[in-house]
Amino acid sequence: MGNSTQTASTTAENDHSLFDSSANGGQTRIIHLDVQGMTCASCVGRVERKLRKIPGVDPAVNLPLESARVIVPADITDEQIIETVNNAGYTASLKTEVRDAESEETTNARSGGLGWRIVVALLLGVPIFLISMFPTFQFPHWGWVLALITLPVAVYSAEPFHRAALTNARHFSSTMDTLVSLGVIVAYLYSLAQLFMNPGLTEHVHPMQGGILGMFLSGNHAPLYFDSASMVTLFLLIGRAVEHRTRTRSSEALRTLLSLGARTATLLRTDKRGTTREVQIPVEDLLPGDEFLVRPGEKIATDGTVIAGSSAVDASLLTGESVPVEVSVGDAVTGATLNTSGSLTVRATRVGSETTLAKMGELVAAAQETKAPIARLADRVSAIFVPTILVISLLTLIGWLAVSHDVPRAFNAAVSVLVIACPCALGLATPTALLAGTGRGSQLGILIRNAQVLETTYAVNRIVLDKTGTVTEGTMRVARFGTFDDFTEVTDDNASSKSERSVSILSDAAAVEALSEHPIAHAIARFATENYGAFLGTVENFEGVPGGVRGELVRTRGEGESRRLVLVGTPEYLLQAGVPLTEKQHQMLEQTRSEGLTTVAVARAIGTKDPLPVGLIALADSPKPESAQAIAELHELGLEPTLLTGDAPEVAQAIASSVGINPENVFAGVTPERKSEVIAKLQDEGYRVAMVGDGVNDAPALARADLGMAMGSGTDVAVQASDIVLMRSDMRAIPTSLRLSRATLHTIKSNLFWAFAYNTIAVPVAAAGLLNPMIAGAAMAFSSVFVVLNSMRLTRFER
């Protein structure tokens, strides 16, 4: 269903344009925060729990982005929210934008300046490891030397873990950093204590027992753990650095999207003398109504309408559509798209945070900050994870001491439990997949509103497609017109050969239809004007109702005037008006409809005579070239495509058959008001329904459906009522979006499975004394990196 939370963002102006979610009476708003200092899922849980203690506050904290999206009541200030996060032990600040491209310095700062810490740990850790593990490298009193050179690793290199653990302790909480810090400190201090209690412990070379494998797994060597303290630190620092780098890469698509916009605009200014000159200004200085020039090869500075010139516009970077779109006077253009050929003069309609590009960025960023329902289990586990591991580690130590009285082995097992447990993998499982999936979606012109949508895409089993503009081109054109005896196909070549009476019928119908807002009326009026010139006369007593229009066409001739009643509409409309078609005329109309042409009848009367049917006008709205392929792909995904239209049943059946939709799955003659009723009917029959549309009249149905999908060429209202926005009008984007959503959810599930399975298996193995703390630390680092790398596969998702 559509996104029901009505909010206004602190970091963006409150507008009502594309992708906007306007305020609900000013009762709530959204605050976007940067949150520094989070390292694992436990941190996320703690920040959210602290914020939820404030009445009415609903936070969503994102670990990879180190950010939070907080829905707050209007009476709660930004300072209260920031202070709450800071009191939890982290550093919060307001974002200046929902998402901005991070500089290299910012990325390095967020990674905690790990580079030099890794260098120190590597240069000292490798010798420590070799000396500890292999007698060949040992020498008299080597333990005291290791105690000395391990100190910089345990203090300097491991400082990020110690600092975070201390901060947590001050707030009576614990995280992954608590486990690592305890593991490193205890390993170092225990080893140092062993040396002081037994100064001659390493006076001689310690023989290798159990072979190399035995030493690696169980630590069967001198009871010193300097190698564990140093190598655990090294492995975890490397793991965190790789994690930061891959996180940055996974959000690269969003930063690329936001960097697509033009930097400057060529503003056209006219002075008092009427002289127009060009002025280069920053794009941020553009205002609605400004006119600017776009030369070939330049990016269009902002959303606007073409007021002069024609060209082909390449929107591939924004929509994923590879074919340039022809534009001319009156056409809307989107900022950040590339003008490929002719020069254009554009009048700005949306600027700054109101542009399509800015709204796309907001939508993608908001989706990345939401949580899938499946992730709630991970949140609940993370809340008690670290305290549970601390208890298990203590019980492991006590158990081993009670059973074997082997202090080194008991210590080995307890420390291994501390460093092998990995709440990080739990915390990264969902957000990294969302980062990669939504980022890839933005590259393909697919915008997913929130994480809940992902699970819905798996559940839907029926997809309802609005015909006009979705399955078909959405542009009506007159294909045939004329009297019942001259009702033939019309082309550019034979338009002038139509009989005078047929042209007269078309002209009369067009004159009346020109006052209607219906797409059929627009098509008839446009065709008549382009091919046969302006209408003659004026229309009085115009009346438009569902099914048809009527009006009196008044023409002045000399000192007199002539009046002609003209009716245009469906056979049912004419019948209600007292103008029934003959059986032969009705058969001709039905035959035309069965060919997929929307057909209306024309009746007219002169003076006081009764109106009579005089001809037909048939219009074509051809299926898009890719519609049949898209329908076939939807079938392969296990969905049942259904066509929904206000057209006559014969027209709808013909269109459905041509694209591969089962004729039984056609709802024809449906008024805009009844579209949502059709969705509700299907839901009552047990279907989980997806709806695809692009018009204002589709919005209620999009909101009523379990999954609403709006074609990006559609109206703002339809877009706001949807869950997935397709920036391309290509129907193949529909199955692509479903596959991407399902792939993202599958990745989240596999990440969570790995995280749970890893901890479920690794902790008991470590408690059983089967692992060296060093190996445990390496496994812990790998588990986080594995989750991130698994998510990164989504960045290579193909259509």
From TrEMBL:
Keywords: ATP-binding, Cell membrane, Hydrolase, Membrane, Metal-binding, Nucleotide-binding, Translocase, Transmembrane, Transmembrane helix, Transport
Region (Disordered): 1-21
CDD domains attached to this UniProt entry: HMA, P-type_ATPase_Cu-like
Subcellular location(s) per record: Cell membrane
GO cellular component entries: plasma membrane
GO BP, one annotated term: copper ion homeostasis
Recorded GO MF terms: ATP binding; ATP hydrolysis activity; copper ion binding; P-type divalent copper transporter activity
InterPro entries, alphabetized: ATPase_P-typ_cyto_dom_N (IPR023299), ATPase_P-typ_P_site (IPR018303), ATPase_P-typ_TM_dom_sf (IPR023298), ATPase_P-typ_transduc_dom_A_sf (IPR008250), ATPase_P-type_domA (IPR059000), HAD-like_sf (IPR036412), HAD_sf (IPR023214), Heavy-metal-associated_CS (IPR017969)
EC identifiers of the protein: 3.6.3.4
TM stretches of this protein: 114-135, 141-158, 179-197, 224-242, 381-403, 415-436, 751-768, 774-792
Enzyme class: hydrolase
Compositional bias per record (Polar residues), positions renumbered to this chain: 1-12
Major place of residence: membrane
Any matching Pfam family: Hydrolase
Membrane topology: Multi-pass membrane protein
Domain named HMA: residues: 29-93
SUPFAM superfamilies on file: Calcium ATPase, transduction domain A (SSF81653), Calcium ATPase, transmembrane domain M (SSF81665), HAD-like (SSF56784), HMA, heavy metal-associated domain (SSF55008), Metal cation-transporting ATPase, ATP-binding domain N (SSF81660)
Matching NCBIfam families: ATPase-IB_hvy, ATPase_P-type
Sequence similarity: Belongs to the cation transport ATPase (P-type) (TC 3.A.3) family. Type IB subfamily.
PANTHER family registered for this protein in UniProt: ATP7, ISOFORM B (PTHR43520), P-TYPE CU(+) TRANSPORTER (PTHR43520:SF8)
Protein name: Copper-exporting ATPase
UniProt lineage: Bacteria, Bacillati, Actinomycetota, Actinomycetes, Micrococcales
